[in-house]
Each structure stands twice: as C-alpha cells, then as structure tokens.
Amino acid sequence: MLVVGTYGVWHGNENGATKVDLRKRDKTFSDEQREALRNRLAEDRRRAESARQSQAKRAAARASSAWAKANAVGEADYLVSKGVQGFGLRYGTTGAALVPLLDVNGQVHGLQVLRSARLAAAGRKPAKEYWPAGMVKKGHFHLIGGSPQWILLVAEGYATAATLHMATGYPVAVAFDAGNMLAVASALAKRYRGIKMLLCADDDALQKCRHCKSRLVLADHPQFCPSCAQPHGASNAGLLGAEAAALDVGGAVLHPVFADEPARRERFIDSGRKVSDFNDLHAQEGLHVVRAQVEARLTELSWRVPAEKRAPSITSDGGEGSDRLAPIHSLNELLERFALVYGQGGTVFDHKEHMLVALGDMRDACVRKELHRAWMEHSDRSIVRVREVDFDPSCEKPGVTCNLFAGWPTVPQEGNCDRLLQLLWHMCGNEANQKALYDWVVKWLAYPLQHPGAKMKSTIVIHGPQGTGKNMFFDEYMKLYGEYGRVLDQAALEDKFNDWASRKLFLLADEVVARTEVYHLKNKLKALITGDRIRINPKNIQAYEEDNHANLVFLSNEAMPVVLEEDDRRHAVIWTPDKLSQEFYTEVLADIRNGATAALHHYLLQVDLTGFTNGTNPPMTQAKEELIGLSQDSPQRFLDELYGDDIPGLKPMPALSKEWYEVYKAWCAREGLPRPAPSPKFINALVRKRQITHPDRARKRYQIEQSVNGPHGFLMLGNCTVPDGKTEAAWLGDQVVSFRRMFSDYKGRA
C-alpha cells in the first residue's frame, strides 16, 4: 500500500494540512511507475468527484422535498433568543427554524437547522446542524431582503445577517461560515454585476490555544500561547475570510466595534463568554448601534445610492421619480439585461425594468439593428423557462430567476401621521367594537408592508356617505406601494385584457361594482381576493400566470357594494359615520403635504403583529350583518321572512311545490323585485341554503273529498306531523285546500 497526499483538520479558515513524506528509499520510481501512479491518482480523483456529485445531488433532492413540506409560517425559540425575525425561513414541527442553502438560480442544496439551546438539549442535537449529509455548502447562501440594487452585505450566520438587514434595510447574504465567504461573494458578484459588496465579518479575536486550550486574545498574543508558550495555531477566521472575499470582488470589510473592548476581552478570559458578531452587538448595545456602524463605514467609503438605483421618496403631491429610458448601445448590455422566455411567442424579460416586453420592443430599443442580430446569434444569451419568471416580492421563491418585483419603491420616514390615523379611527366609529375593529384594520394594513408579498386572505369594504375621508386615507396608503398599487375601476375589471393586475401588491377598488352587475362579477372578485395565482392577459404578449400578491380594499358610497355569503369570512365591512368638520380634513391635507404619508409607512412598519397572520379573520360588524342580509338571494329572504312571521297573511305549511313557487312570485312582485328566481333555482336555494327536503324526494298523494291526486312534489314547510286518526293523503289534502285559501287571501290584500 502506498500513502501519498496531505491530511489535516479544519480550524476556521486553516485546514492544518500536513504533507505525507515518503521515506528516501520509497522515493525512487521508474518512469512507468510514475506514469501508472499519476493515472491511478487521476482516476481516483474522478471517481471521488463523481461520487461526491452524486451524493450532493441526492442531498439537494432530499433538502428540496423537506423544504417544500416545511411550514411557511411558524415560530422558533432560536429567533426569539437572538432577537431577530424570520426572513424567508420555514419551520419544523418541533420548533426549529430552517434556513435554505441556495444557489444563484434559487435551487435548494441543503438546509441549516437552527435550534435554541433548550430545544437542542431536549433533543440531544446540535444548536446548528446542516442537513442532509452530503449536501454542498460551498458557494451556497441564503439571501435576505430581495435582489440587491446597488449594495449587498454578506455575513456569516443567519442571526448576524438578519440583524444587519433589520438595522439597515439592505439586502444581506448568509454565507454560513467564514470559510464560505469567498465562494458566496464571488457567486453573487457574478450574478449581480456592478453592485458594491460590504463583507461584515465576525471578529474572532477571542480564541483558544490548540495545545493547552487556554483562552487568549489574538491582539495581545498573535503567535504564542501565554500559558504554554507554544504556537497557539489560532487565527481570526472571520476577519481573514471577509478580507479574502473583499479582495476577490473588490468589496470592503466591516467588523463590529464594541463600546467596552477591554470588558469584552476580560469577560472572555474569565468566563469563556464569546461576543464577536453584529448580533452580539445588537443584543448588547442596540440595533441603532449596528445601523450607525454600517452607515459610518459607507460614508467612509463614499458609497452612495447611484441616481439610477435610488428609490423614489413619496412627495407632497404624490408624484414618483422615474428614470429616463435610454437606447441600448452595446451587445454586453443586451446579454446582461434581457432573457428570452421560452415558449412565450417572442417575449423577453428585462432585468433592468423587471418586466416582460415583446421581442420587437427590445429590438427597437437598440441603436443599431445589428446589435439585436448579434444578440440573437450569441451563444451566451440567456434563455429561461416560463416558470422562472414570476412576481416574487419576498425574493425567496426557489427557481425564480426573472423577478417582476424590482424592490420596494418608497421610503418610510419618521414623522407625524396622527391625523391620518384619527381619520381611520373615525371611519370605524359606527361599531360597538370600534377599538377591536380599528386594531384589526391597522394590523391588516401593516402586515403586507412588514411581510412583502404576503397575500391577505381577507379584504376590507368601507362604504358610507360621501365626503367622510375614505379616499383621502386610502389614496395615501396606496402611495406606499408606488408602481405596485393602483385604483381598480369598473372598466378595468370587465376588460378582457387584465395586465393592470400584473405586478400589483395593492388594489383600491373604488365604486367598482354597479348594482346590476354585482352577481355577475362576484366570482371574479373572489378570485382576486383569495386566489394564489392569476392569469395575466396583456395585449401583444402571450398570456401567462404569476403569483397573486394583490390585496384589495373596496370603497363605495352604495349600500350594497359587494355580495356576501351568510358564512363569509373574507370581508371586514365598515359603514362610516357622517363626515367630520371641514377644518379637520384641511388639517389632514396639510399633514400629508408635510410628510404624513411617509410617516404612516414608518408607523405601520413598527406595528406589533404578534398573534396576527395573513389569515386572521376580520371581526364581525353590524355593517357586515346588514350587508349579508341585503346580499341574500330572494328565495332565502322569502323563506326567512315566512318563518319569521314577517309576511302578513302567509305562514309556512305543506303544499305543492309549484303552488309555493307561485306564492314566491307574488311576494317578489309585492316587494318590488323585478326578476324572481326561476323555479329550479328557487327550489335549489331552499334545499341548499335552508335544508328543505327537495320536492323530488317528497312526492306524495293528497286527497280532496273523494279524489286522490298524485304523487306530486311537495314542499314540506312548517308543522308536518300527521294528526292521529287521519291518513297522510287526507291530511295533505286539507293542507292544500287551506294553502289555496291563504294564497287567494294574500293576493287579494292591498
């Protein structure tokens, strides 16, 4: 047996490699032996690499399957202990948080399982675990905060990355450890060309000697252990990994600076408690300190948001800044910017504008037609499948490489929005549970801002007198969504081309349904409110599907703006009180000019959503109960009023179904209902909605004097007990006679 090569044990970024030296007498080989050895080693490497790739592929498949089955909503003690939120995580059944290890195409290659100390001890498992065995970590990451537009922060652990994102709002990549910083930074630099990259290192200056395990500080003892005087073999892996990555991608490095550095070192030497990353800084000194250190470093580097990447701020007149489109001058821009969408009939995705355009539009944007031809003939042009194109505001959906979401378009600012909130409070004022209703509405408005892309399973309907401020408040709320919000009108809803629904997070349905069209459009609106996917049918581009992230608010002056089922759980209905004084609305407008809209954005981002989810049902209101009553089909209303003794001269009793239908039609005429339901629909409504036995299942004979008729279909309403001493046929005959007399009297009433 011949042993060659190196071996070692990794410590941070150091692999501890030791070369195997052959004894002198073993070093003499013939040329044939050397060639055979080289061939054998090459073949062994190929086999090992093939086995490694197969194992990695199996691990990725297992991880993808587990990720798909994990809970998208949940809680984890680990996150609570670290004081961070869950960004793009999923959750196990035991309370662990799952972090996906992704590549630049969104493919899941493995999972990191995060457990609190209590959960780890209870299950006798590590607090941090990579799963499954054989997964590849190198070059794979988890991206928080969406696609970077001009800057990307890279950190080691999830808690550190989440802290940095919470503090700054910038996108942050989780590299998982110092040894992976270089590979992750390199992959992301190639994917997002031109962005600036800040490598946020752990400060691993607090170490232990490899020999005697004594604690030491590298700044004080860079090479030798103060206890055993041997080379301690330790290094600042966090800083070294970040520096190597920064050098490779042309980025910069930042490490946390603690206010009391001597105390940090002393605490470690005395107790072994290690404080080294930005999450530790957040826990000790606050999130604002993390933000200040990042911003100070960016100022030092003179890094600023480029003009073309700057998100438009909400202005006093509600306008938004927009970049001027420019012709395309180079083949490189075409190659980097556009991807052909396979199977969509000449459609391309524009990575700069984050939209689908016709191939002809891309061609016409070129300064020379030769550019377009060169792109068509280039082997490196990007071609994507339809499933790779989607609207993903969370920027976390696996497999999406062409995101129709370009980043949040508006900027929150601290300020005064008290009068806007007072206006919302006033709109809830007709309800006895005003506070509960107001709190629910505020959380409903805040949830999709705090969880970009969240699809609420409910909607808000606000109707009432004109001039109460419905539009004043919700027009400002809609501005928070920039280009991803719009007013939905009747013409758009009925148009066969519905590209207005593409790339939308918020729709303000203003007087969207006329009374005669309510029932016709009910199902279309239902799909908009709760549907997970929506078919987009634009002009000049083949229809396609995208995720439906639009949340709706209905505004109306009508008494019946929407049609509600009796068991409806989707609608929060509010009937507004009379309007306030004109002076109040003037003050609200003045606040809006002074930044109240951006302040509302900031306020909603701070709302505590504990216990509230996108599926939390709205509270029942008096306005909703009244709207449900108005929404009833006429057969249901007829039967309810009949049993409630609300129709003078009529009472429920067994009778022929055809004759009850005639009574129903007469009642409709008296109530001013122009179109009674057809007989089959009348019967079906009573059977389905009021559990009346279908006449086909209640076919009976009835006897009047000596004549026996039937069997015929009966509606068995009211008291259906046959008296003692009578046959059912005779009793039903008496009921039919009494019914006909009752109907005749009813028709004769004025």
Produce a short descriptive summary.
With 750 residues, the chain is of the alpha/beta class.
Structure description:
By secondary structure, the chain is α/β, with parallel strands linked by helices. Helix content is 39%, strand content 16%. It has five domains: 28-136, no CATH class; 141-305, no CATH class; 331-384, no CATH class; 418-628, 3-Layer(aba) Sandwich (Rossmann fold), CATH 3.40.50.300; 633-748, no CATH class. The strands form nine sheets. It has a five-stranded mixed beta sheet, with helices on both faces. The longest helix is centred in the N-terminal third of the chain and has 39 residues, at 31-69. The N and C termini lie far apart (114 Å).
List the helices and strands and how they pair.
Elements: E1 6-7, E2 18-19, H1 31-69, H2 77-82, E3 90-91, E4 97-102, E5 108-114, H3 117-123, E6 128-131, E7 142-144, E8 151-155, H4 158-168, E9 172-174, H5 181-191, E10 196-200, E11 206-208, E12 215-217, H6 237-249, E13 252-254, H7 261-271, H8 278-285, H9 287-301, H10 331-337, E14 338-341, E15 347-350, E16 355-358, H11 359-365, H12 369-377, E17 382-384, E18 389-390, E19 402-403, H13 418-427, H14 434-450, E20 459-463, H15 470-479, E21 485-488, H16 490-494, E22 506-510, H17 518-530, E23 533-536, E24 544-547, E25 551-556, E26 571-575, H18 582-593, H19 596-605, H20 622-631, H21 634-643, E27 655-656, H22 657-671, H23 679-690, E28 699-704, E29 707-715, H24 728-748
Parallel strand pairs: 8-9, 8-10, 10-13, 14-17, 18-19, 20-25, 20-26, 21-22, 22-25
Antiparallel strand pairs: 1-2, 3-4, 4-5, 5-6, 7-9, 11-12, 14-15, 15-16, 23-24, 27-29, 28-29
Helix pairs in contact: 4-8, 4-9, 5-6, 8-9, 21-23
